[in-house]
Design brief:
23% strand, binds zinc ion, 3-stranded antiparallel sheet, 4-stranded mixed sheet, 5 helices, single chain, Nucleoside Triphosphate Pyrophosphohydrolase, 3 domains, alpha+beta
Length: 254
């Protein structure tokens, strides 16, 4: 084969392998079979009509190289997409936190749960408690914070957050109000509890004693301010917070 033809054939084989791999993921076997077939053919019939059959073997090798290249790129792209997904999605546990073996979905206590394939660990997925507070302000409104983190970043909600081990729900609500709105509150009573059907959470809404302080945004909040009751945002971050405010207003007829 002359130089230019060989070069063109090389590039064509490379491109064909690359394009084929992008279209289907079964091209690995085609490339492998081609290499064996052309290799064996070249061994049995070294030349055919003056054509060096080892050139054919070389071309199928290049074809296989094209497949490998495309395959590597596909995998890199998929990995990138997977990582991007992991950053935004709720974590899905895949490995046992105790022994690192794979978790599998199986029936435990009459429900499908993630359980370890090796040890006795079961991911029960019990709900986490969230403490929130309605903080009335002397000016007549209530304190809201603009969320600085996902989910619903940029939307307004009541000061709220996950409880820490060792604190009471009331202490959790007080700590969150201090962290998000930089206000020191005293909890008065529980007004509403709610468990969202899709989330492993239990929300507890407290009513705090009226404050005179001016809220300022703390960690996790973009803004913190007092909203008058007739100017509450239409698109609050969570409907349960809206419901809690509604129940509180009904309870005090405000
Ligand atoms: Zn385990």
């Amino acid at each position: 084969m002359s130089g230019p033809i060989l070069l063109i054939s090389f590039v064509a084989a490379l491109a064909l392998g690359y394009v084929l791999q992008r279209a289907t993921d079964k091209t690995g076997w085609i490339g492998l079979a081609l290499m064996f077939a052309t290799g064996a053919l070249a061994l049995i019939v070294p030349t055919y009509n003056g054509f060096d059959m080892f050139n054919l073997f070389g071309l199928s090798m290049i074809f296989g190289f094209g497949i490998t290249l495309a395959d590597k790129r596909q995998k890199a792209l998929k990995k990138k997409a997977d990582w991007a997904k992991l950053k935004t999605e709720r974590p899905q546990f895949r490995h046992c936190p105790s022994c690192t073996s794979k978790l599998e979905e199986r029936e435990v206590d009459e429900k499908k749960r993630l359980a370890c394939t090796y040890c006795t660990y079961v991911h029960w997925n019990n709900p986490l408690p969230v403490a929130a507070s309605i903080v009335p302000h002397k000016s007549g409104g209530i304190v809201l914070v603009k969320r600085g983190v996902e989910p619903r970043m940029g939307k307004w909600c009541l000061p709220a957050g996950f409880m820490e081990v060792g604190e009471t729900p009331e202490q959790g609500a007080k700590r969150e109000a201090a962290e998000e709105a930089t206000i020191d509150i005293e909890i008065e009573r529980l007004i509403y509890t709610f468990a969202p059907p899709q989330l492993p959470q239990v929300l507890m809404f407290f009513v705090a004693r009226e404050i005179d302080q001016t809220p300022t945004p703390g960690s996790d909040a973009q803004q913190a301010r007092v909203f008058q009751l007739d100017e509450l945002p239409d698109d609050m971050a969570f409907s349960s917070h809206v419901e809690a405010i509604k129940r509180w207003r009904q309870s005090i007829d405000r």
